[in-house]
Amino acid sequence: MKYAEWAPRILVEGHKAQINDLRRPPHTILGDDPVEYVLSQGELKPAFYLWSILPGGESTALLGRLTTDLRMKDAWNPLASRVKGEAEYVQFFRTCERGISGWRNNPKQRPAEQKADLQKIADGAVELRDRLEVSPQFSQYAMHELIEDREITHSQEFSDGTSNVLNGRLAISSVLPSISGILTDVSRRAAEYAGEEPIVNKPHSANADLHYFIRVLSNYLNQKYGQPLHEVVAVTADVVFDRKEIDSDYVRMLVS
């Protein structure tokens, strides 16, 4: 495979690492001690194998297109003047993966359906919180009680090798949020999300997956660099989907 000279080095090396892993039986990749294996592989292994969002083969194929397709020169070159480290290239690639996998896992609801469901969550969380607060059976219910003693013992070993489960549980309980606090936060967030526009307004349209990808990538670039970088999004979407020619005007229309 011939990689483009302007393709980010970390992505090229990551693609090579993924190819090597795909050639090996799955049970031999991590071995008996995954942590030791990750440490022995340096920074590329956790970045490209353990944290893949798409299935291994699909992730590798996508990364291959992004590092070999000549059209990507018009995406990588503008990014090169903005990135502050190689990790940002990995973030860009992971955002592309999320733009694909996110749509697959999306419930594909119309705006009114999404708003109604989120409002049900907001109302249900408040109702459950209020019922728990007046229930004598749940008056002492707390998250730290769900943690097993052996897990606390493992994380609370002292210098002399002893451990104190009670002290460990008290320490954990002091930092964990209450059930009431969690449900209040769930309700608040659900109400906020209910007021937002969905990423795709017409989830059953022919190009809904493409529109989702474009908006996810555009939003990431806008948050990261203060600009939507329409041309970068257009080129990347064209390479990823190869469905039809997509230009910056098409992207601008979708994200405006």
Mind explaining what this structure looks like?
The protein has 256 residues and is an all-alpha fold. The protein has two domains: 9-108 and 203-255, no CATH class; 111-194, no CATH class. The chain has 14 helices and no strands. The protein has helices spanning 9-22, 26-29, 34-41, 44-50, 56-68, 73-80, 87-105, 111-134, 149-155, 165-173, 179-194, 208-225, 230-241, 248-255. α1 packs antiparallel against α5 (56-68) and α13 packs across α14 (248-255). The longest helix is centred in the middle third of the chain and has 24 residues, at 111-134. The radius of gyration is 23 Å and the shape is globular. The two termini are 38 Å apart. The model is unreliable at 25-39, 43-50 and 158-162 (pLDDT under 50).
Portion of residues within helices: 55-70%
Question: Tell me, what's the shape?
Answer: globular
Element-by-element helix/strand order: HHHHHHHHHHHHHH
Number of helices: 14
Mean pLDDT: 84
Number of strands: 0
Largest sheet: none
Structural class: mainly alpha
